[in-house]
Amino acid sequence: MRATRYFLPTLREVPAEAELASHRLLLRGGFIRKLAAGVYIYLPLGWRVIRKIEQIVREETDRIGGVELFMPALVPQELLDETGRSGLEILFRLKDRHQRPFTLGFTHEEVITDIVRHTVSSYRQMPLVLYQIQTKFRDEPRPRGGVIRAREFLMYDAYSFDTDYDALERTYQAIRVAYVRMFQRMGLPTIIVEAEAGAIGGGSNEEFMIVAEGGEDKVLQCDTCGYGANAEKCELPDPQLTPPPVEGIPPAEKVATPNARTVEEVTAFLNTTADRLVKTLLMRVDGKPVAALVRGDRELNLYKLQHALDGESVEMMDAESIRQITNAPVGFAGPVGLPPDIPILADYELRGLQDFITGANEADAHLIHVCWGRDFPEPRWADLRVAEAGDKCPRCPNGTLREVRGIEVGHIFQLGVKYSEAMGALYTDAEGNQKPIIMGCYGLGVSRCLAAVAEVHHDADGICFPITVAPFEVVLILVNPEDTSQREVAERLYAEMLQAGIEVLYDDRDERSGVKFKDADLIGIPIQVVVGRAVQEGAVEVRLRTDKTPHRVAAEQAVAHLQALIAELKRQYEPTV
Ligand code: ATP
Ligand code: MG
User: Fold this and answer.
1) Inter-residue contact 171 to 438 (CB < 8 Å)
2) Ion ligand 2: protein residues whose beta carbon lies under 5 Å
3) Using H for helix, E for strand and C for coil, what is the string for 289-320?
4) What was the pLDDT predicted at 202?
5) Would you kindly state where each structural domain of the chain is located, as residue ranges?
6) How many whole angstroms from its chain centre is CA 419?
7) Does the predicted model carry a pTM greater than 0.85?
8) Per CATH, is 253-382 categorized as 3.20.20.10?
9) How many angstroms separate the alpha carbon of residue 558 from the centre of ligand 1?
10) Ligand 1, atom 27: nearest CA belongs to which residue?
């Protein structure tokens, strides 16, 4: 491709909202352009990268027997009614001319289950893996990072159908390996962590994360056994603490704490530390009120509370209900004197604490010297808090968790029968019994991976693409277009490269060489071929985007040299599993 014929709208001024390096570089380099909040145009360079990522995920899914199809983005709302997902806030909704409600596909479990319930009826038709690469729509509350969290984005989504859980496990493991291979081929170093199921629901599931400072996800990793989990999920072991004796602890006492509601305000006012304070969070699980207690310096993990009560949903209680229950504004709730029908759950860690401070269920007041078992009944102990760096590993005896930030690039789920039961996707087994199909689903953020690659592979001058997903393999830079011998050599090399099947961007623009070098570095094509003064000695310079050391190569041998170099670079991204 000749730069003079190409469409390369680089950008000089990048908006301040672009905090992540990948976002800035993709905008500056002319890979993407914003149309509206969370809605992006893929410019030709960006689109070429996307197509390569798509090709990798296709090849790897086909390799394990997946079959590609393409489902509509327009999804009748009634399908989501069947699984209870039509009310989700993330959905974009619209109506047709007859006022029939539709949503724009945010994921396609219902659509694929609808297809399968009408077509798969026998155990002989399974295992089956279907997949697509499609545009997804989610009305994200906070679009961010350019294409990292967009409202319209490209996703690869695969769905598996099996007759039993052992078969599902086999399919899941095969797809897990396919994912490892996909990310290795893209040059994305990922870690695999346990995850929460979120709106998809179902059983065990794992996320593929790239570690990046700007990532939105908090990930905990054991320093000893390799266990890793999203902080939303990360279990903590029961430390089995022995309760301290209550003898000698003064009786609970109400103290005035005017306007002190937050942990910081209360501890400052009472001149104490947050680990002496017990936070009482009034929540609703499946609509029913519950009180959750965690130490003042800890964070309640909503999912853990929900799971502790086997609930389907969890939310904070609204201020009005809190006022009714505690006779106080938000910020003064405590376990002493709560209505007895409200269950109290407390984090394991609090078992080792007595003589603590809580809200007094009264405006501007707290209780000090509170003891559970004495001032209120012993609560139900559970793992309730968000894991943090320094916590003990839940899987091995000596490990300690450390914390990294991550960007989720893929997510694989064992769904089980959640969708097949809700939607009646049944099959007949060898004995003639009707059973629900056992499903799995597997998502990968194709457009997010474009950003992830740029986030992982860049330096001060721009992106450094792995050759497997680079928009071109080689950029051919003609230093001085006025110089006929340079131009001749460049033109000849360009023709030879095309002939040899090398993906080349030929910078034949009438620009200063400094501009061309800067642009080449910015857009990150892995191999740079410079046709400049060296042509007088019949040579060109070949260098890598990442190390810049120029290698003189005879112009006649340039193409053979490049072919070898491309093969060598590609080998670095060959999958190891
Ligand atoms: P997140 O937790 O980041 O909101 P999710 O868990 O809701 O994502 P999934 O439903 O698991 O997302 O979607 C599968 C994959 O699609 C994710 O692993 C991610 O790579 C990608 N993805 C999800 N939401 C977005 C988005 N808003 N923009 C771009 N990619 C996305
Ligand atoms: Mg996910």
Assistant:
1) no
2) 411
3) EEEEEEECCCCECHHHHHHHCCCCCEEECCHH
4) 63
5) 3-235+403-455, 253-382, 472-571
6) 23
7) yes
8) no
9) 43
10) 149
Q: Flag residues of the chain having pLDDT under 50.
A: none
Tell which atom from ligand 1 comes closest to the C-alpha of 106. 10
What pairing do the DSSP bridges indicate for beta strands 205-211 and 380-382? unpaired
Give me the amino acid identity at 464: C
Q: Does residue 233 line the site of ligand 1, with CB under 6 A?
A: no
Per-residue pLDDT tens digits for 441-484:
999 999 999 999 999 999 999 999 999 999 999 999 999 999 99
Which pLDDT belongs to residue 23? Answer: 97
Task: Let me know if domain 3-235+403-455 sits in CATH 3.30.379.10.
Answer: no
Helix, strand, coil share (%) of the chain residues, nearest 5 = 30, 30, 40
Q: Let me know: does 353 contact 391? Beta carbons within 8 Å.
A: no
Q: Which residues contact 401 (CB under 8 A, 6 or more apart)?
A: 220, 221, 222, 223, 234, 387, 388, 389, 390, 391, 392, 393
Cα-only R_g, the chain = 29
Check residue 200 and give its pLDDT. 62
| Protein residue closest via CA to atom 26 of ligand 1 | 149
Which of 155, 405, 442 most suits a substitution to test ligand 1, by most atoms within 8 Å of the C-beta?
155
Which among 194, 219, 448, 450 is the best mutation to test ligand 1's pocket, defined by most ligand atoms within 8 Å of the CB? 448
> CATH top-level class for 472-571?
alpha beta
